[in-house]
Write a structure and sequence with these properties.
Layout (H helix, E strand, L loop, with lengths): L3 H4 L7 E5 L11 H9 L2 E4 L2 H10 L6 E3 L5 H13 L4 E4 L12 H9 L3 E5 L4 H9 L6 E6 L4 H11 L5 E6 L4 H12 L4 E6 L7 E6 H10 L8 E5 L9 H11 L5 H12 L3 H13 L5
Parallel strand pairs: 1-4, 1-5, 2-3, 2-4, 6-7
Antiparallel strand pairs: 7-10, 8-9, 8-10
Helix pairs in contact: 4-5, 7-8, 8-9, 10-11, 10-12, 11-12
The structure holds S-adenosylmethionine (SAM).
Length: 292
Amino acid sequence: MNRPDIAEQQFPCGALYMVATPIGNLADITLRALKCLEMVDAIAAEDTRLTRRLLDHFNITKPCFAAHRHNEEEVAQQIVARLQAGERIAFLSDAGTPAISDPGARLAAAAHAAGLRVIPIPGVSAVTTALSAAGLPEGPFYFAGFLPAKRGECDSTLATLAGVAAHLVFYEAPHRILDTIDALARQFGANRRVVIARELTKLFESVQVMPLGEARAWLEQDSNRQRGEFVIVIEAGGHVDLPQQRAEEILARLLPLLSLREAVDLATEITGAQRKTLYAHALQLKNKPSKD
Ligand code: SAM
């Protein structure tokens, strides 16, 4: 690459390069990533076949070796030894940014532990790509990655997340998208806005914003809407988290006016406290003998 801005880039020896790659559209690779891949001595890849395809596309020939979840610990030591000998090694996950719901973190940790440099070569990640097009009010977000597949674990994870005052971002696979939307609607209610970002940067990209209560019907309207890769964003609840004691006081005032369930739902929404905890407290209050 002959661009002067790229020619000036420094790629120190004895460093591990965490290189972000496209999540669909190959043109999203950065100039610095391409130059880095040309400069390194070898490439550690989550899947060498996928990475070779990417390298072929950009006419880059480099030795590749596997570094995936199952051998990350062991390969980390080999990488450290090569870095100590002064080599430059790049790590690439299958798509997007390494260590974001992907391997890479253990390699970086091993390099840090050996006092070696870990240099990020930033680029695309599905989480930031989805947020950039979601149109939700600017503010904090919480990246939760994939939810547990088992219903009980999924519900309790969501109950914990309900107390987080931020947009919640999830990754999801097509075969679980309907179950996940149901679980989200159970936890956050029909009115909370959801963003369903599908096939980002690809041919059938879509970013849809709707109330959670409408999401299942929208997905079922056309089976193509359930295909591909998904990022789901739940809009922040707009609540300010209150101390637990205040949440319980509010709950106690709502209980005589509403059904137990309605009181717990409303108190959860107002206070940002955990629904499960408030529910247990409501049962306790109901079962308490009255003073009269
Ligand atoms: N490291 C990647 C990143 O930085 O986004 C994530 C890897 S994770 C194993 C794969 C998940 O990311 C997919 O199941 C999907 O939820 C999300 N994802 C990846 N590419 C996507 C795309 N083009 N559109 C929507 N979601 C995508």
